Amino acid sequence: MEKLKEAEEYMTPKERIVKMILGQQLDRIPVLPFVTAAAAQILRANYREYSTNPELFIKCQTEAQRLFGYDAVTAIPDMAVEAQGFGAKIIFPDYNAGYPDPYHWTVQSPDDYKRVIESFTWANATRMNNQIHILETFKETLPDLMAGGNTIGPMGLLSRLRNPNDLLRDVVHHPDKIHEVLELVTEIEMEFVEKQIEAGAGTIMVPVVLAERELMSREMWEALDAPYQKRIADFVRKKGANYCVHTCGRGPYFDTLIKWLHPTLIQNAHLPDDCESEQEMIDKYGKKVVLLGYLQVSQLAWWSPSQIMEECKRELEVFGKSPGGYFLGACCEYPPYAPLYNAMAVVKAARIYGANYKRVGGRN
Amino acid sequence: MLMKDSILNKLKESVISQDSNAAIEAAEEALEAGIDPIEAIQNGLYIGLKEVCDNYETTYFVCELVCASDAFYDGLKILKTRMGAESISEMKKGVAVIGVVQGDIHDLGKNIVKYLFEAAGIETIDLGFNVQAETFVEEAAKANADLILISTMLTSLYPEIGKIVSLAKERGLTARIMAGGGPVTEEIAIQYGVDGWGLTAPLAVEKALQLLKKPLPIEETMD
């Protein structure tokens, strides 16, 4: 790997992120390899321990951030945090992130939704409470870092409680039952968001994966999911946090997402459905949002650090010119089992190729 | 003739409108009217499923695809009761086994691929999710499959693709192997020695149809 000078860092991660959003000169570009479950490797913890013991989670995340020096920490161990609060049995494999038991779905029929959602109590939502506790701790122990919270979103939660194939059938055949519980779920998720922001989350990330060409028409997303996602997005902003959309399927509807949700950031893995190239994505949307990503999980898992640095350099040359700003990082969760040297390579690339970053132009 | 056309149209429309009850009724009506079940499938149900699959990601999306396929299979089940094994096999362009690798439970993408393959006339034997490599090979051998379709959404499980390829070779299977799933790139697929890959489900079908037309390499056909 060639020897190149790294940026002299004189900003705290939080300053760096805030100033990037404001369009000011930075010591280097902000960087987020999105190390979530993979941080367990730092203390050789297995994923079950890491995901169920918040103190261990905090130690792993803290050690990982100190070692690599990225700009934000996450409080999310996996995407099954909220599902546990609604009675889902979560499986914790030794070498991967936790997921709901696919052989015993919590919602077995369309008539089950309401009962399951109404059974929620904060006292039983151990994993959601843990996430809030993690953010409270980060606020005290890592005050200079941007701490990220999340909610999986109303439909996202239902997809963790009901077999996703059956959920799609219910969307078509029992829309009233779905909307009835989406109302209830949205209220609970807004409360969860509020607790996380009060605990110190500066950003709330929400996966909005249905607004993608692969999964749903624009019209269906707008009728089914958008009104609930909008309430959460508006609430996040009202509470003073940054709202970040995560989308990792092919052909996300950037225009529709922006129209409904006005995100500060969008983290995406694939080009928007109306763009043929990365440049077109920047031309169309670069003034409207801060872009976050675009390192693919396959690359992070299987490429060498030199390849990763080359790709980071390329992405910085392309996306670094986005007028609304750019956050170098992974397009999705860093693969849990993948060697962490590539996370180190991403940060190193930000320090070398993203030194003295200032965005060109500005946001609308 | 008019009645026959009307029933075939009902079969087609039942799939397009994702109406399982209508598909069952139309299939029963077709049998009562003495329509050859093969014709009812090929000129009725398949036409409907093809219409949905050909317009996937433009007019129809996953919800519609799942429900249209439900209607297709519900109608098919009725029509198959009057068909012998020979007539069923005559209709096929090929047989594929499909599944999600061991350790992975994401089966939505796999199901989309399955529906599109069915619409293309390739019978798919669905092994479900969390499928052991040995099971892929065993089931492919049992069905004398032309294709093995491997799906995964988890980068950690790519080596499972290689395992299935090796086991299939050891077993001497001539089935063409394809791999796909959200993060699986062409580079990864080639690295693990599969014969085909498609960026999207419709492209995977195109690739599979090409593979089925292509003669097997000489060394594979010599035994």
Keywords:
heterodimer, A: 364 residues, alpha/beta, TIM Barrel, eight-stranded parallel sheet, two-stranded antiparallel ribbon, B: 223 residues, Methyltransferase, Methionine Synthase (B12-binding Domains), Chain A, domain 1, Rossmann fold, four-stranded parallel sheet, 11 helices
Architecture overview:
- The complex is a heterodimer of chains A (364) and B (223).
- Chain A is built from 16 helices and ten strands.
- Chain A is α/β, with parallel strands linked by helices.
- Chain A has a domain of 247 residues: TIM Barrel.
- In chain A, the strands form two sheets. An eight-stranded parallel β-sheet of chain A has the order 1-10-9-8-7-6-5-2.
- The radius of gyration of chain A is 20 Å and the shape is globular.
- The two termini of chain A are 39 Å apart.
- The mean pLDDT of chain A is 94.
- Chain B is of the alpha/beta class and 223 residues long.
- Chain B is 59% helix and 10% strand.
- The longest helix of chain B has 19 residues.
- The model of chain B has no long low-confidence stretch (mean pLDDT 90).
- At the A-B interface, helix 8 and helix 14 of A face helix 4 of B.
Order of helices and strands of chain A: HEHHEHEEHHEHHHEHHEHEHEHHEH
Largest sheet of chain B: 4 strands, parallel
Lateral arrangement of strands in the main beta sheet of chain A: 1-10-9-8-7-6-5-2
| CATH topology call of the domain at 13-46 and 60-86 and 121-148 and 196-353 in chain A | TIM Barrel
Which SSEs are present, and which pair or pack?
The complex is a heterodimer of chains A (364) and B (223).
Chain A: H1 13-22, E1 31-32, H2 47-52, H3 54-68, E2 72-74, H4 81-85, E3 90-91, E4 99-100, H5 113-118, H6 126-141, E5 146-150, H7 154-161, H8 164-173, H9 175-199, E6 203-207, H10 218-224, H11 226-238, E7 242-247, H12 254-261, E8 265-268, H13 278-285, E9 290-295, H14 297-302, H15 305-319, E10 326-330, H16 341-353
Parallel strand pairs in A: 1-10, 2-5, 5-6, 6-7, 7-8, 8-9, 9-10
Antiparallel strand pairs in A: 3-4
Chain B: H1 2-16, H2 20-32, H3 37-54, H4 62-80, H5 85-91, E1 94-100, H6 108-119, E2 122-126, H7 133-142, E3 147-151, H8 158-171, E4 176-180, H9 186-191, H10 201-213, H11 218-221
Parallel strand pairs in B: 1-2, 1-3, 3-4
